[in-house]
Amino acid sequence: MNFFQAIILGLVQALTEYLPVSSSAHIRIIGDLMLGQDPGAAFTAIIQLGTELAVLLYFRRDIVKILSHWFGCLFGKDGKDLKSRMGANDRDAALGWYIIAGTLPICIVGFTMQDLIETTLRNLWITVTVLFVFGILLWVVDAKAKQIKTIERMTVKDAVLFGIGQMLALIPGVSRSGGTITLGRAMGYTREAAVRVAFLMAIPAVFGAGILEAVKAVQEYKADPLFPGWGATLAATVVSFLVGYIVIIGFLKFVSTFSYKAFGIYRIALAVIVAILLVTGVLPAIDPSVAAGA
Fold first, then answer.
1. In this predicted model, what pLDDT tens digit does every residue of 172-188 receive, in sequence order?
2. Nearest-CA neighbor of 94 among 77, 64, 74?
3. Distances 245 to 55, 238, 277 between C-alpha atoms, Å
4. pTM greater than the 0.90 cutoff
């Protein structure tokens, strides 16, 4: 991988990480087209931190507010009994608990099914299928569902369902935000609320996993033949941070006015294009590096 290719992948990561179109699918597809295989664990894990830092920066006030109220209720004078410690009288503290509850499904499944996720589920035919299916679901659900719920009306049950939507993103092609938003809209949450929950709920899961993967990748990067060097990798990470921040702003403004129809159509079109590339042999269904290790 050269410097230019690294920058392109950093841009792809930034443009797709928080849109409901699946960044993992795009990185896999673009990586295969440019490099002939997956860009590599080290590079991918590090540039993902750029987009996560963009989320932390944009939602910094929300994060500080949620954490301060959560700790205040749990350990401070506000936590007089069990109910108050669980945020019964403080919606921001309760939101902290809901984010924890929504993070559990992806953590449990991610740890227990890691081998399946990193091998079998990375077949591009599976990616094509879920791109298509969730494209239709996002389109239809968003068009039919009511817009009556806000974050203030969230319950533990809703948080777990949001978490299940996020968990489905372990399958490349589903999309972390796409799965979360689709479940949120199906429950009647407004578009803005569903997006906000998707962003906030992704922070502990994605950022935590990203740091662990990056540390592991840094230790093993010398064995990664595709690693482009630290200069190109850091440049790509900066690109993913800057462009990712702009995408967050634009996406939140977009959903306040328009539906998710455009994203549904895009997913369906992408699925058809990738299917054609698979049938014609331009793209392999199984990544060569995964097949070699099987």
1. 888 888 899 999 999 99
2. 74
3. 7, 11, 32
4. no
